[in-house]
Design goal:
The chain is mainly alpha-helical. The chain is 82% helix and 0% strand. It has 7 helices and no strands. GO terms for molecular function: D-glucose transmembrane transporter activity. Pfam families: Sugar_tr (PF00083). This is GTR2 protein.
């Protein structure tokens, strides 16, 4: 896994994992919806489950731990990892406790909820998560500063335009 992460990059593996999980969740939904019409859809659902787990283990399972460790300097890193771990386990607990109720409520469309969330996570990661492969903490922090600075400049330009129109 470590060699794959170093070769392919954290962001690309994370995005590939999210997209693979999204496609697998859609395939699980289709398989469950069409199961009563086609008996072979059970195989589609089983393959989709296996692929979902594989894609999770390639991307969203391990990669956030790499990224969190690389986004923070030595001082706040332990606290950031603790918060990330708490969020991870809290979400796992919530999904574990609520899944049966959601499955009873949504029936075969239960994985459509996961597909929608995965799409949101993919879009967020695509637009907001930087590639950290081969970069120091200072370089990663500079990327965030540039984004913050460009957003501030855009806001000031909009304010100036609004003032000129008034």
């Amino acid at each position: 896994q470590v060699f794959l992460v170093e070769k392919a990059g954290r962001r690309s593996l994370f995005l590939a994992g999210l997209m693979g999980m999204l496609v697998s969740a859609v395939a699980m939904t289709v398989g469950l919806v069409l199961l009563s019409q086609f008996a072979w859809m059970s195989y589609v659902s089983m393959v989709a489950i296996f692929l979902f787990v594989i894609f999770f283990e390639v991307g969203p399972g391990p990669i956030p731990w790499f990224i969190v460790a690389e986004l923070f300097s030595q001082g706040p890193r332990p606290a950031a990892i603790a918060v990330a771990g708490f969020c991870n386990w809290a979400c796992n607990f919530i999904v574990g406790m609520c899944f049966q109720y959601i499955a009873d409520l949504c029936g075969p469309y239960v994985f459509a909820i996961f597909a929608a969330l995965l799409l949101l996570f993919f879009l967020f990661a695509y637009f907001k998560v930087p590639e950290t492969k081969g970069k120091s903490f200072e370089e990663i922090a500079a990327v965030f500063r540039r984004k913050k600075l460009s957003a501030k400049v855009m806001t000031e330009l909009q304010d100036l335009r609004a003032g000129e129109e008034a």
